[in-house]
Amino acid sequence: MAASASSIDITKYTGKWKPNVSKSDDFEPFLAEAGVPWLVRKAIKRSAPITELAVTGTTFRAVVNSGSGKANEGTFGEEIDWHTPGGTSKVKLELSAEGAISMTGPSPNAKDPKGTLVTTYTLLPDGTLQLTMHISRGDGSELLIRRILERAD
Questions:
Q1: H or E element, residue 63
Q2: Which of 44, 47, 76, 116 has the fewest CB atoms within 10 Å, counting from its CB?
Q3: DSSP label at 8?
Q4: Beta bridge partners of 83
Q5: In which band, very low, low, confident or very high, does the pLDDT at 86 lie, cut at 50, 70 and 90?
Q6: Which residues contact 140 (CB under 8 A, 6 or more apart)?
Q7: pLDDT in tens, 101-153
Q8: What single DSSP character describes residue 5?
Q9: Where do the domains of the chain lie, and which CATH numbers do they carry?
């Protein structure tokens, strides 16, 4: 059951976030799944992208400085265009009763048209942010990547 943004203090998502690599899963399997070339994957692994999030009322906005450069924004409960370096796809933007923000859409693997990707942002009690990327492949297998983000502002 989705909650309205006004019933939960989700303003704590707002700000700039950077990855804590030592507390995060290896991101490379996700990039490989998305078809990112090996040399580009190595460059991304060495980078420390800043993710800027903003939550106001019932809207969500995310910009990753190493991504497509386009803002991803929309209203909870609606389908929105989600921009990545690999292209744009339609995702459902949701806010859970527990305050987690999720986007559900197609797998980033163009060779897996039956696959899905659920990306979830969850605030943790220690003030960090967990970014979970869960790919369910068309063949029934799965890939789960968790990244821990810390405040950069």
A1: strand 59-64
A2: 47
A3: T
A4: 88
A5: low
A6: none
A7: 999 999 888 889 999 999 999 999 999 999 999 999 999 999 999 999 999 98
A8: G
A9: 5-151 (2.40.128.20)
